Amino acid sequence: MRLTEGDLPGLYLVESPVHADARGSFARAWCRDTFRAAGIDFDPVQANLSANTARHTLRGLHYQDPPYAEAKLVRCVAGRIWDVAVDLRPGPGYGRWQAVELSAERANALFLPEGLAHGFLTLTPGAVVLYHMGAAHVPGQARGIRWDDPDLAIAWPAPPEVMSEADRAWPGLAERT
Ligand SMILES: Cc1cn([C@H]2C[C@H](O)[C@@H](COP(=O)(O)OP(=O)(O)O[C@H]3O[C@@H](C)C(=O)[C@@H](O)[C@H]3O)O2)c(=O)[nH]c1=O
User: Fold this and answer.
1) Which residues, at least 6 apart from 139, have a Cβ–Cβ distance to it below 8 Å?
2) 62 in ligand 1 pocket by Cβ < 6 Å?
3) I want to staple 128 with a disulfide (CB 3.0 to 4.6 A). Which of 78, 138, 159, 163 is the partner?
4) Annotated active-site residue in 56, 62, 118, 132
5) Distance (Å) from CA 43 to ligand 1 centroid
6) Where are the annotated coiled coils located (predicted)?
7) Residue 33, H or E segment
8) Residue 68 alpha carbon to ligand 1 centre in Å
9) 62 is catalytic
10) Which residue's alpha carbon is at the smallest distance from atom 7 of ligand 1?
């Protein structure tokens, strides 16, 4: 398992060798020792399965403020997604974003540290996303940033065709409280 730090500090692309044989394939999905060796102390307390029927379904951009902030290890276990992280930590990187294509075929994943908002756009029908969380979801603490906020100017690969009303209604960075 190889961890490569992205453009946002603490954001890592996680790649695992895929061992194929006559039965199919095997890849490691998470390894505490490898993460610790990279200086990441991630102890998942929750894992979520997100099944998405249509191509170009958008979920996000979601986060929880401290003390509920969540690190996330995001993996696509069926199909492909375009996964986005937005830096909401105070400092020079505030508002910067990075996106990575995750796919079941590549068996890659994205690790987001606390303090980032997260979202994705599905690139195939039937995309299934499995993500481990470093902190529990607290319903009243769910926060969001609008996917098309001009201050973020995220270069989505296609306009979303399916999304929740809640995700359409999030504020932009400038209106964030
Ligand atoms: C996130 C979550 C939702 N739910 C419930 C609430 C609701 O009835 C239903 C769907 O919730 P949502 O619409 O918030 O689901 P969704 O929009 O898929 O939310 C997720 O989006 C991605 C991008 C993330 O990064 C996640 O952290 C999470 O915020 O599931 C839980 O029971 N536990 C959870 O941890």
Assistant:
1) none
2) yes
3) 78
4) 62
5) 20
6) none
7) helix 32-37
8) 15
9) yes
10) 139
Ligand 1 atom closest to Cα of 70? 27
119 lines ligand 1 (CB under 6 A): yes
Q: What is the ipTM of this complex?
A: 0.98
Compute how many other C-beta atoms are within 10 angstroms of the C-beta atom of residue 174.
9
DSSP 174: G
Q: What is the pTM of this model?
A: 0.97
The two structure tokens encoding residue 52: 């998405």
Report which ligand 1 atom has the smallest distance to the Cα of 120. 23
CA angle (99 as vertex; 97, 103 as ends), nearest 5:
160
Cβ partners under 8 Å of residue 62, min gap 6: 117, 118, 119, 142, 143, 144
Whole-angstrom Cα distance, residue 149 to residue 128? Answer: 26
Q: Where are the domains of the chain?
A: 2-175
Q: What local confidence, expressed as pLDDT, does residue 176 receive? A: 83
Question: In this structure, how many other beta carbons lie within 10 angstroms of the beta carbon of residue 118?
Answer: 19
Q: Tell me the CATH number for domain 2-175.
A: 2.60.120.10
Residue 137 annotated among the catalytic residues of the structure = no
Radius of gyration (Cα) for the chain, nearest Å? 16
